[in-house]
Design goal:
CATH class of one domain: Alpha Beta
Strand order of the largest sheet: 17-27-26-19-20-21-22-18
Shape: elongated
Distance between the termini: 49 Å
Number of strands: 36
Largest sheet: 8 strands, mixed
CATH superfamily of one domain: Phosphohistidine domain
Bound molecules: adenosine-5'-diphosphate, magnesium ion
Strand content: 15-25%
Radius of gyration: 34 Å
């Protein structure tokens, strides 16, 4: 037997005295509802008397296979007797009965748990007693029929429709529109009918305790009613709906739910009584106004059930009989906000003019409202700026930055995929980048539908409103680029089978075939595809976001702090750089130079790779140098006085070459067309060379720094372009360019040593040519486990570290990021082999590699800078871990995620300062 307390009392007794044994801090013992009922009593608000049975009792009951722990029933029995004494009424009393509600309440708000049962304690005898007491037969029969209905449905699992149908029929026969208009006699008749339904549908075998004179009867003993209701709440913790909800929301299964047993307040005692729900501020836009609804002469869920037309809460004071309660409510709104320092939602009932509080909790709100409320509460002195910053959910900011499906629109999902880049888009289906460009040129919005995208698709991705791929995960090319552009993207929609040549796509499991020009809508926030046009809404960006982010910046960059948390951006062109500055990026953490080789320049790089002729190669290099220098000039101008980390050429070469299969098809066509032998020979030679470059595992192949040893001219040309642009800006425009050169995919310290030597030689040459001093650091991109493990060696010749956590995740797990997310990660998540997708939120093993490398690097160079430029740099949970656990100095993310990163970094800093994490630095 355990000696822990199982029952906590709360609320007012008949004489108005209060008892409080709990508090809001006891969420895990009393559940959210019970803890806050206790808290409301503690601060002197009117709460009907009651008691809460602990969550732990539920867990013991449930783990024992629905068997009561020893002593628990006796303790509840005692609490019930005590409640009767406090209220001066007894359950089932034929003169003046006590009625109670039985309410579930878990530590986290959980739909799917058992519903509330009201008016428990009504029996044939106590109903008569209540009539005698109140002289209000209409109210009593209404309460009784509600009780039988709820008890049957919620506790015994009888189909609720049976009762609704009987009720509807009664209204039809009586010729009235609402339940409230039924007469007392008609309600009395309904009680009889409801009891009959109960007896017909409850099995005596399962419930022998309900058998009376050989047949099931509606229980006339309130203690049986109460025991069954409590057991039903406990049992509902493990019901399927609740388990699914917990799994989906990451709520542990071993918390249990509390049960609140509480004396009824009657909102259905005529025109002086009412029931309602309200928020202390507007949860949609955050305005400082009361928000909510009530109903006169009604009970419980009538307000949300939508059976009758509710009245806005502002009108409450206009009802003379309710004026006093309205004033009290207004005062309570203030008390609640002053106490919880937040916007609260409440449930209340007015019984014959007297206000009773039945529930409160911190209210849910939209992103817009969250910002406004936080800022106004700072202005009102209710909270400080730190609290305001802590309170905004970074993930919720996405709502503000991208258009969404209008939630009032009816949407039928055609297919599902990964929610790869947030926001929604509507447009005509196109199957190639050229078609996307053509459609956009004619002003027709389009959605680019591809098996997978590659760097060649960039122009089409820019032209399209949104991107849909049937293959690839959240760090596939399409996803990364779309996020960078802020374009909606749904990836890995495996049900869509694309025939790009025929310009159509079959949708598996349906008879839909998408043709070019068909209108579809995609929602990259949810990962869904819809046939036809769904109306879109954009949330208006107010200055509130800017205010919160400015406060966030003050926190994360606090002057004098030994470890400011910086936020940079991944940007490859001046437009993105400018956009990101507007979003508050401090510098560029990753400039990928390969995007500078696309478009017209692709031919140049192809000629370079495929040609044996040194003169051709030299000529190509000279032209590439000119255009790249021009690129960097523009980039460094925009980013004057701010760091720009330029990564040397990185991707596998095949990304720049023609796809061999396509080239083969073209060759065959030209052969058939009888093209001149000279042309055909050229094509064949080209095909041979491309075939010769094919690799089994391109992502583990000739890429990154390895390219620099096979084609040394390429990276040196890039370094020369970087240095020349910087030198020209210093000499000719008086600017302060701050480029940094980053060597990708380093595994060996020797790679870094050799690369750095040649880079510095070029930089020195350029400095000499321009007659200026150039200080361009050369750092390492760490994205291989070997590099992290030997980071102290590499640090000897690296001026900074930046972690490419996409590749580092890929190489640490040995998961291909292009395939894993569509092939088996969902199964791993489902089977709980993984808690989170490691490409989305940084894995602890990968994090440990980063932490270790940072530590090893600093052991060699104490003031070395460490950054992160993978997709994790834009994920709030990863941002916190990277700063607080791994100890990096900055994260770098795509432009649209910069606001989210600023907020998450500030929250990380606050957590670190609160001592939630320890960092030895
Ligand atoms: P939920 O978790 O679904 O909100 P509640 O336990 O809060 O369920 O109950 C729903 C509604 O039932 C309350 O909002 C209130 O209107 C009514 N209710 C619950 N307990 C009482 C009570 N003791 N007196 C009057 N109404 C009650
Ligand atoms: Mg409630
Ligand atoms: Mg990489």
């Amino acid at each position: 037997m355990s000696d822990t307390k199982r029952v906590y009392r709360f609320g007012s007794d008949a004489g108005g005295a209060d008892i409080t044994e709990g508090a809001s801090s006891m969420n895990y013992t009393l559940g959210g509802k019970g803890a806050n009922l206790a808290e409301m009593c503690r601060i002197g608000l009117p709460v009907p008397g009651g008691y809460t049975i602990t969550c732990q009792t539920c867990m013991e009951y449930s783990s024992a296979g629905n068997v009561w722990p020893e002593g628990a029933l006796a303790e509840i029995e005692e609490a019930t007797r005590d409640l009767e004494a406090r209220m001066g009424k007894r359950l089932g009393d034929p003169q003046d009965p006590l009625l109670v509600s039985v309410r579930s309440g878990a530590p986290f708000s959980m739909p799917g748990m058992m519903d509330t049962v009201l008016n428990l304690g009504l029996t044939d005898a106590s109903a008569e007693g209540l009539i005698a007491q109140t002289g209000a037969p209409h109210f009593v029969w209404d309460s009784y029929r509600r009780f039988i209905q709820m008890f049957s449905d919620v506790v015994m699992g009888v189909d609720g429709d049976l009762f609704e149908n009987a009720l509807t029929e009664k209204r039809l026969v009586a010729g009235v529109k609402t339940d409230a208009e039924l007469s007392a006699d008609e309600l009395h008749e309904l009680v009889g009918e409801f009891k009959r339904i109960f007896c017909e549908h409850v099995s005596g075998e399962e419930h022998p305790e309900l058998i009376q004179n050989g047949a099931v009867a509606f229980p006339q003993d309130p203690s049986i009613q109460l025991k069954l209701a409590i057991e039903a709440v406990f049992g509902s913790w493990m019901n399927e709906r609740a388990c699914i909800y917990r799994k989906a929301n990451g709520i542990p299964d071993d918390l249990g739910t509390a049960v609140n047993v509480q004396a009824m307040a009657y909102g259905n005692k005529g025109e002086t009584s009412a029931t309602g729900v309200a928020f202390t501020r507007n949860p949609a836009n955050g305005a400082r106004e009361r928000y909510g609804d009530f109903l006169v002469n009604a009970q419980g869920e009538d307000v949300v059930a939508g059976i009758r037309n509710t009245v806005p809460i502002q009108k409450l004071a206009e009802y003379p009989a309710l004026k006093q309660a309205a004033d009290d409510l207004e005062r309570i709104f203030q008390i609640l906000e002053n106490h919880f320092h937040d916007m609260c939602d409440i449930e209340f009932t007015i019984e014959q003019g007297k206000l009773w509080m039945l529930q409160t909790r911190v209210g849910k709100r939209t992103a817009t409202a969250a910002l406004r409320i936080a800022i106004e509460m700072v202005e009102e002195g209710l909270i400080d700026k730190e609290t305001a910053v802590r309170r905004i959910d970074p993930a919720q900011l996405d709502q503000l930055l991208h258009p969404q499906f209008d939630t009032s629109a009816k949407v039928e999902v055609l297919a599902r995929g990964l929610n790869a880049s947030p926001g929604a888009a509507v447009g005509e289906v196109v199957f190639s980048s050229d078609d996307a460009v053509a459609a956009a040129a004619e002003g027709r919005p389009c959605i680019l539908v591809r098996w997978e995208t590659n760097p060649d698709d960039l122009k089409g991705m820019v032209a399209a409103e949104g991107i849909l791929t049937s293959h690839g995960g959240k760090t596939s090319h399409a996803a990364v680029i779309a996020r960078g552009m802020g374009a909606p993207c749904v990836c890995g929609v495996e049900a869509i089978h694309i025939d790009a040549a025929a310009k159509e796509a079959r949708v598996a499991g349906t008879d839909v075939v998408l043709h070019e020009g068909d209108i579809i809508s995609i929602d990259g926030t949810q990962g869904i595809v819809v046939l036809g046009a769904v109306p879109l809404v954009s949330v208006e960006l107010t200055g509130d976001l800017e205010t919160i982010l400015t406060w966030a910046d003050e926190i994360r960059l606090e002057a004098g702090s030994t470890h400011p948390y910086h936020v940079r951006v991944n940007a490859d062109n001046p437009e993105d750089a400018e956009l990101a500055l507007g979003f508050g990026a401090e510098a560029i953490g990753l400039c990928r130079t390969e995007h500078m080789f696309l478009g017209d320049r692709k031919q140049l790089i192809q000629d370079f790779i495929l040609s044996d002729d040194t003169r051709v190669r030299e000529d190509v290099l000279a032209r590439l140098l000119a255009v790249q220098t021009e690129d960097f000039l523009k980039m460094f101008r925009v980013m004057d006085n701010r760091e720009v980390v330029v990564r040397l050429i990185d991707p596998p070469l095949h990304e720049f070459l023609d796809a061999p299969r396509e080239l083969e098809v073209y060759l065959t066509k030209r052969e058939a067309a009888g093209a001149p032998e000279e042309e055909l020979a050229g094509l064949r030679a080209r095909l041979r060379r491309i075939d010769g470059m094919a690799e089994m595992n391109p992502m583990l192949g000739l890429r990154g720094v390895r390219l620099s040893f096979v084609f040394p001219e390429l990276p040196l040309m890039q370094v020369r372009a970087v240095a020349s642009a910087a030198a020209a800006l210093i000499r000719d425009e008086g600017l302060v360019p701050k480029p940094e050169v980053m060597v990708p995919l380093v595994a060996l310290a020797s790679e870094q040593v050799q690369m750095r030597a040649v880079c510095e030689q070029v930089i020195d040459e350029v400095a000499g040519e321009y007659g200026v001093a150039l200080d361009i650091p050369v750092g390492t991109m760490l994205e291989l486990p070997r590099a992290c493990i030997t980071a102290d060696e590499i640090a000897q010749d690296a001026d900074f570290f930046c972690f490419g956590t996409n590749d580092l995740t890929q190489t640490t797990f040995g998961f291909s990021r292009d395939d894993a997310e569509s092939k088996f990660i969902p199964i791993y998540l489902h089977k709980k082999l993984l808690d989170v997708n490691p490409f989305e939120t940084i894995d602890k093993g990968v994090l440990e590699l980063v932490r270790m490398a940072v530590e090893k690097g600093r052991s060699v160079k104490a003031d070395m800078h460490n950054g992160v430029c993978g997709e994790h740099g834009g994920d709030p949970a990863s941002i916190k871990a990277l700063f607080n656990v791994a100890g990096v100095d900055y994260v770098s993310c795509s432009p649209y995620r910069v606001p989210i990163a600023r907020l998450a970094a500030a929250q990380a800093k606050l957590e670190a300062e609160a001592g939630a994490v320890h960092l030895d630095r």
